[in-house]
Prior knowledge:
Blueprint: H1 8-26, H2 35-40, H3 47-70, H4 75-99, H5 112-116, H6 136-157, H7 164-187, H8 196-205, H9 213-227, H10 229-236, H11 239-256, H12 263-284, H13 290-293, H14 297-324, H15 334-366
Amino acid sequence: MNSRGKLYGLDHLRALAICFVFLFHYQLPTFGHPDWLVDVAKFGWTGVDLFFVLSGFLIASQLFVQVKLHNRLDFKDFFLKRFFRIIPAYWAVVAIYFCIPFFRERDALPPLWKFLTFTQNFGLDLSSQITFSHAWSLCVEEHFYLLLPLVLILLRMLNAARQAYWVMIVVFLFGFIIRAYSWHTYYEPSMVDDNGVLLWYRYIYYPTYNRLDGLVMGVALAALYHFLPHIWEKVAQLGNWLLVLSVLILTGAYFVCYNEHSFVASVFGFSLVALGYACAVAGAISPKSILYRSNSTITTFIAGLSYSIYLTHKGIIHITQAVLSKQNIPIDSNWMLLFCTVSCIAAALVLNRIIERPFMKLRTKILVTPTPKSG
């Protein structure tokens, strides 16, 4: 942690998450890729679950600090912070997708209204709407930004803040039930059909109500961190052991989810992954852990660009491969992977400098008490 209270451990995890997401998408059939990458990046889909746990912890922490300091929630302050952090860069990339067809990694682009209303992840049909499909996770995050403050307000109105853990338990258990129902109702009847996998993504993988595990884990960790300091102090003493536990749980999750479309993986896999990454986040914010004490300019740099990389990487990979393949660079070569990596970082840096940073500075001017560390 630095003098401004920035948790370097979370930067390490954020950098890890975006690397996972990038490599997982790179090895998909959409792009040319080295053969070795398929096995290496198979578990990379969980990078988005790590982002969910990080968001749950950071966003809940931001709200919990308001409650502790002012005994109230400032909706205007909270949503303005989220708006300036998320929307300008997102709108810019959406505009690029709709105005510059060459940027699209595929031709099947969902209608604009789904992007503007953050409803793209409901009923997402990969056969006709696969372009910019990775924005589904941003939809989940936006729904979370809206629902969490409302739930906290309701709990305070009912004077039931001390029973908030029951809400988290119910939401967590609901995930098992709705995923089991979705698997049996929508996927199982068509699993032998070519359309079966598409239905699995549509009804199990993408919908917000199926993907709350990581966010709930992050909120639970934030509650422990802020409201139960006597327990957290004991947990924090196990910083490095929490990281070891995270690796063990995620290793188990890898094998459970090896066939990600199976019933067990579909119902329990997301929760197991969320638990593993929650242990990693807990370790990263524990003063005793190696992640907490270490500072890396590389991971800080990548973490700072993670949102821009997330938004643009598929389009940039597509453009890079289209251009360089004409220069006789094999599309499935390691050199192509290296060039695509560099071009994605360069494009993200441009988006960060011309969109993200100016709007973050504007946010600082507008808001009286900004909290930069929550991103």
